[in-house]
Amino acid sequence: MIMKGLIFIALFASVTLLGYQLVPVAWDKFYTWRVHGVEVQRVRLKEMFLDMDPQKLFLLNVISPTIFCVVGLAVFKSLTGALIGLAVGFAIPALIVKNLIFARKTRFAVQITDGLMILSSCLKGGLSLLQSIEALVEELPAPISQEFGLILRENKMGIPLEESFENLNKRMPSEELNLLTTAILVARETGGDITLLFGRLIDTIRAKSKLGENIRTLSMQGKIQGIVMSMLPIAFAILVVSFNPNYFDIMLSSPVGRGLMVYAVISECVGMYMIRIFSRINF
């Protein structure tokens, strides 16, 4: 008995010492990794003129995985559920940043037609291209005013206009912006009538937007059907639990049942993603 006690004490001391040595190292590695991820997200947001407190962004990246890990462990009562929750928690901040950037790019694409009209009107009135861009920045709200205002600031710093428009294309890639920048650069090099080009571009972008609205209207039925079909299992589960709260106890109390629940959730997510892909039409 004494020997077993000594062995247990030795093992406990060894594990404690090992944990004392490894936990700080693991925490430093985790902290460095998350700080790097937060810095990447912060830079992406700053490039889109979306300011966010770095401390809040870091807390979001740390708290989100913790909360979802605890929720996954509480719901599925297994290490698998905790790992799934941890993965979801790590993905949430990146998805938030991605959606913010996507929303900004969408607003910018909508404003391009108005920006073209202002540039065309100013050029017809005898203003230079830079003066026309200044008028655009004054007349239109963000994000197009911020992006073209950055072009003006870069020009004052001595950066060529061609390079500024290339940088704008990298920040806000879209077919409409590519047409606009190409028309401006070609007209500057060849001396063509840029106002005539802008007029044609406005007609082209409006026709493309109208076609896009028609396509979205036609594909809306498939998207709605996909949403309804995706919500049916969730609605069924809520309805069953409301009538019989213990109905899913056998699923949550056994490893096989929890595995099937995880498989059902994954299959539901894959199905929703596939429906979204199939109902998307690029034009």
From TrEMBL:
The protein in question is named Type II secretion system protein F
The primary location reported for this protein is membrane
Please state every residue range assigned to the domain named Type II secretion system protein GspF. 118-241
Q: Which organism is it from?
A: Velamenicoccus archaeovorus
TM region(s), chain numbering: 6-27, 57-76, 82-101, 226-248, 260-278
User: Cellular location of this protein?
Assistant: Cell membrane
- Would the keyword Membrane turn up in this protein's UniProt record? yes
Stretch forming the signal peptide = none
Source domain of life: Bacteria
